[in-house]
Amino acid sequence: MGFLAHIFGGNQKKATHDPVSEAISLPGAAAASSKADSWYYPAGTDESVFRGPNGRPSIHAISYTDSTGEHVLRLVNDRTGLLIGPTDRRLPKLGLFVAQLRGETHHQAACRAGDFAPGATLRLVLEPENEHDPYAVAVFDSTGEHKAGYFNKQKARTVSRILAEGTTLNAVSFRGTPANRRCDAVGVIAAESSLLAHVLAPRPEQLPKPAHLR
């Protein structure tokens, strides 16, 4: 089974609705919003709640299809089945750097030309000479020819330090489109190779079903 098949095929079930958009658009929005919030792991704890018995984060990525038909990857806690939002501050402490890229509007041609579909391999490139941010981390497609955008400044400082120290971070898209399609937004998951492979591996069937599919 190929790399993308591992992520999108097999036992990975897809949601056909989006908790965020439904919470806004359906009648009884307040109740729907409360339900959507319940699908996410709550704040107020440290990153240890996501550590498994083997030291690896008890987190896997699953395929998700929202109400508009957009395909993305979402992170799920293995123990509870609760979703973990991309802005969760505990993720970097686990070595997982998840970000919605900035500056895509200035790189529309490149976003369209490159493959940024969920699960596609991406490249991280330091730009120490960047006039706007000496810690800038640019994100390219796997060919290194098409730039989608940048990590936000806060996460770029951490990621650039890690890369500058000689540590290799592998990266994949969690949101985006294949080549030659309109691409309005790109999201990236970056981590050391073994950790990223763990997160992208098929989620074992015996684990609790993701909360939004119950």
Layout of secondary structure:
Elements: H1 3-8, H2 19-25, H3 29-37, E1 59-65, E2 71-77, E3 83-84, E4 97-100, H4 108-113, E5 121-126, E6 137-141, E7 147-150, H5 153-164, E8 170-175, E9 187-191, H6 193-200
Antiparallel strand pairs: 1-2, 2-3, 4-9, 5-6, 5-8, 6-7, 8-9
Helix pairs in contact: 2-3
Explain what you see:
The chain has 214 residues and is of the alpha+beta class. The protein has a single domain (3-213), classed as Alpha-Beta Plaits (2-Layer Sandwich), CATH 3.30.70.2330. Helices cover 22% and strands 21% of the residues. It has six helices and nine strands. The strands form two sheets. The protein has a six-stranded antiparallel beta sheet with strand order 4-9-8-5-6-7. A three-stranded antiparallel beta sheet has the order 1-2-3, with helices on one face. Helix 2 runs antiparallel to helix 3 (29-37). The model is unreliable at 1-29 (pLDDT under 50).
Keywords:
3-stranded antiparallel beta sheet; alpha+beta; 6-stranded antiparallel beta sheet; 6 helices
Could you give a short description of this structure?
The protein contains six helices and nine strands. By secondary structure, the chain is an alpha+beta fold. Helix 2 packs antiparallel against helix 3.
What order do the helices and strands follow?
HHHEEEEHEEEHEEH
Shape descriptor reads globular
Q: Please tally the helical runs, counting DSSP H or I stretches of 4 or more residues.
A: 6
Q: Quickly count the domains.
A: 1
Q: Mean of the pLDDT scores?
A: 85
Strand content: 15-25%
- N- to C-terminal distance: 27 Å
Structural class by secondary-structure content:
alpha+beta
Can you list the strand order of the major beta sheet? 4-9-8-5-6-7
Radius of gyration: 17 Å
Low-confidence stretches: 1-29
Largest sheet: 6 strands, antiparallel
CATH-defined fold name? Alpha-Beta Plaits
Top-tier CATH class: Alpha Beta
